[in-house]
Design brief:
Blueprint lengths: L4 E4 L2 E4 L2 E8 L7 E10 L2 E9 L9 H7 L3 H4 L5 H12 L4 E3 L2 H16 L7 E3 H5 L8 H8 L9 H17 L7
Parallel strand pairs: 3-6, 6-7
Antiparallel strand pairs: 1-2, 3-4, 4-5
């Protein structure tokens, strides 16, 4: 199989990355209650991972449950972040990361790594919201997917959002969009 690359400025980079999405239980970035990850190698999805995570004190605000459908009852027996991370760290460590609204997801990952694993890491990142901004009426994930013909059936499910984001990024690369970091 021929190796695929994407062009950034004057250099070419492997089309290997992990798309990620987090759902939270409150406005605190370390209140992650679900993670969704999609690993892409050579432009193809090769692995997915999704898990509920018990947020601190298993606290999930009702208005957040109304958005993503995850309640404290759902996360009661889920692993806490420090127990969950070793199961999926191979999908994010040493990988370029892609998210729709990277600022939010990167801050969630960083806060949880810092607060619960005593890790301080940096990652190469790309934001599909920034990449697609200006292409459609707005840069919401649901709008970008609809306008691009990408199926998003369970919006605010972390795995569904991460997969949609991965497909948006692949489309951006293949269509020559500016890959803003």
């Amino acid at each position: 199989m021929e190796k695929k690359f994407w062009r950034i400025g004057v250099k070419y980079v492997d089309l290997d990355f992990t798309a990620m999405d987090f759902e939270t239980g409150s406005g605190y970035r370390n209140s992650v209650c679900q993670v969704g990850l999609v690993k892409v190698v050579n432009g193809a999805i090769v692995e997915t991972y999704s898990s509920l995570i018990k947020p601190p004190n298993n606290f999930i605000r009702n208005d957040f449950t109304a958005i993503h459908g995850i309640s404290p009852e759902d996360t009661k027996y889920a692993p806490v972040f420090a127990e969950s991370y070793p199961r999926w760290k191979h999908l994010v460590e040493n990988q370029p990361l892609v998210a729709h609204n990277m600022k939010f997801d990167y801050n969630c990952l960083g806060a949880c790594l810092r607060d619960f694993c005593d890790l301080h890491m940096t990652f190469k990142t790309y934001c599909t919201m920034k990449i697609w901004r200006g292409a459609f009426e707005n840069a919401r994930l649901s709008t970008c997917c609809k306008e691009s013909g990408i199926e998003l059936t369970h919006h605010h499910n972390a795995l569904a959002d991460a997969e949609a984001c991965a497909r948006l990024f692949i489309l951006a690369v293949n269509s020559g969009r500016d890959l803003r970091e």
